[in-house]
Give the backbone structure.
Amino acid sequence: MTSSFSSSLLSSSSGDSTDRNDTTLTLIPGLPNDLSSLILSFIPYSHHARLRPTCKSWRTFFSNPKTLLSLRRTHLAFSHLLCIFPEDPSLTPPYLFDPHHLAWCPLPPMPCNPHAYGLSNFIAVSIGHHLYVLGGSLFDTRSYPIDRPSPSSSIFRLDLSTSTWDCLSPMLSPRGSFACVALPNSGQILVAGGGSRHPMFGAAGSRMSSAERYDVEKDEWVALDGLPRFRAGCVGFLVGKGVDREFWVMGGYGESRTVSGVFPVDEYYKDGAVLELKNGGKWREIGDMWEEGERRRLGKVVAVDGDDGEMPGIFMLDRNDIFRYDISSNRWQKESSVPKKAPTDTCFGFAAIDGELHVMSAINYIDSVDIRRPRQQKKLPSLFIQIYHPKKGTWRSMTTKPPFKCRLDFKTAVLCSIRL
């Protein structure tokens, strides 16, 4: 594998005879390229962009995705990263965050549609070294009335090895705020439910029950049996291995009622539905997951992959508490509480990275003695991350300075973990 890189390195300079004896053609002076490429492959992905301009050989090496990713897979030198979309990715570029090295890596913005703006409630998933951005809710200048949000069926894919975006075949039904999972090692994506709701209109928008499957190799969508009922704002995750996998869809809202006959209020679901991926893919319903009055709606849900064939751990962040879902009893059981509570007017970000639960919040380090200094108050807040290890039952924390030019709002930001 490394010998192929050496040949590509030499061929890249064959057009310039003056560079053949240049020391920059070697990766690390004094070491063979095979050993040097192995050493460089262990550098975390978040630092690659800054190392490319070092010299011609490093630019060639870090721009060779097949060799680099193969070396990392062979020697298990993966970087577990978090991709954060603070706003509409066509206007505000997303970033990769490496929690192990507290490093940030900017990504290119998504291609812009001159007729659409304000994309939100989209879903981001990862397959290999690709990030997929699916659907969402947006405003379209060609629609009427112009201030009414519309669901999107667009699919974009970011190749992290080349930092380029591709527009793929759209979904059969446009949707936002839907359940979505990527099937590992199969090149497929499943979506179910959704609607057209936009954060600017908290109680409007459509609902739907349709489900689809996307084939990455064929770049095509296939319709599946729809959910038993309309369900938007739901979450999805996988349970099981191989042919026994099941697509679980939980929570969300469907019907609505009005208060005093004027103000619309959502009726949030306490149950879920499960799609068996074998035997024709049929849905079955599961009962209520909590008792009346226990909570109003489902919180933020993430899945932690199990080891050696174990069932994945399903966790929910509900305000300041973390709950674990018990499949056998169909109940959420309290696992732990967040050490540093969030203010009532803020929202936590919640993600699973490398088997740990990351609870994120924006904090401001302005002390009362510094209020007199106006320059201090212009500083953007830091990102405070509290990390819970489910198997050890322990907490730790870290603080980092995000590079965003705007305040990070976890009520609307989209998070996606990826392993490179």
Summary: The domain at 110-298 is CATH 2.120.10.80 (Neuraminidase). The CA atoms of residues 132 and 309 lie 26 Å apart.
